[in-house]
Amino acid sequence: MKLIVGLGNPGSEYAGTRHNMGFMAIDKFADMANGSFDRSMFKGVYGMIKNSSLGEDVIIAKPETYMNFSGEFVQQFMAYFKISPDDLIVVFDDMALKEGQIRLREGGSSGGQKGMQNIIDLLGTDKIKRIRIGIGEPAHGAIDWVLGKPSGESLEKIEEGTTNAARAIRDAIKMGFNKTMSLYNGGGRHG
């Protein structure tokens, strides 16, 4: 069973902010796969997608802790459901990528993303599959940037990025992470 976790901050004041790209992407994936976040546990919401066209059962989840404590939810959830780090995919925003660009990686550092760093710290491994969605680098004020709501062309790029990330989640489950990585890391748009 795969666990797909989208990262973000809970609450309506954070909805649509750059830091919530993980939430936006996993919501789009849930819509594609006819899933919903209809259960809650360990300070998070989740849903089960069973007998789907994906080929295996999938759990989709969103921590309801703040971003920097995402690992608390992920660690408890994985222990309860006996999910291996090999079966985890984390989706989150990344300032190091251009707006809307996505990048898949099988492991490595958090790149300074504190939610991902907390997951790495609490799971004790950096060998965690991840889908990063670019939000671009601010001219100044990183906190204001990540907690800001994009508009205009920025919003269009981020909408495309979250849609591509949702498709990458689907494809990673259906055809494996390695193959999906080679398809999406070219930077183009995917159907």
List keywords for this structure.
globular, 191 residues, alpha/beta, seven-stranded mixed beta sheet
Descriptive account of the structure:
- There is one protein chain.
- Helices cover 37% and strands 19% of the residues.
- It contains six helices and seven strands, in the order βαβββαββαβααα.
- It has helices at residues 21-32, 70-81, 114-123, 142-146, 152-175, 177-184, and strands spanning 2-6, 39-40, 44-49, 58-63, 88-94, 102-105, 129-134.
- The chain has a seven-stranded mixed β-sheet, sandwiched between helices.
- A hairpin with a 3-residue loop joins β2 and β3 (44-49).
- The protein starts with a strand and ends in a 7-residue tail after the last helix.
- The mean pLDDT is 89.
Helix residue percentage: 25-40%
Structural class: alpha/beta
Q: Beta-strand level of the residues, as a percent range?
A: 15-25%
User: Alpha-carbon distance between the termini?
Assistant: 25 Å
Say how many strands there are: 7
Order of helices and strands: EHEEEHEEHEHHH
Main pleated sheet: 7 strands, mixed
Unreliably modeled segments: none
Rg over C-alpha atoms, rounded to the nearest angstrom:
15 Å
User: Number of DSSP helices?
Assistant: 6
Strand arrangement in the largest pleated sheet: 2-3-4-1-5-7-6
Oligomer: single chain
Globally, the shape reads: globular
Compute the average pLDDT.
Answer: 89
